[in-house]
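Table S2 (continued). Query chain:
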Amino acid sequence: MIARRRIDKIHDKQYNNLKKKMVIAEFSIFPTSEGASVSKYVKEAVEVIEGSGLKHETGGMSTTIEAPDLDTLFKVIEKCHEAMVKMGAKRIHIDLRVDHRLDVEASIESKLKAIGKR
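Corresponding output:
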């Protein structure tokens, strides 16, 4: 029983250390039911992301977001989804790519520096 508690403590500590690494995600969300121009919906999602306080960079086709953990990231995505539902969207498309680097600290900035873009 003591050995099991020790293993659980080690596992908890390792998991908590992993959670400290930054999650970087590329995210896009838009309704597919609202015609050809969906910029007002995308603008609303960008405002939700800006209001989250998370570091982000918005491009022409997606937004890159840094989050401390997956829960935080998913909460922001859920709020973007809720905003589009409140606007009347009948069908919503979400693209999400996540990079959760567990061996080193990573950021949007470090990724851009690695390819000579900063």
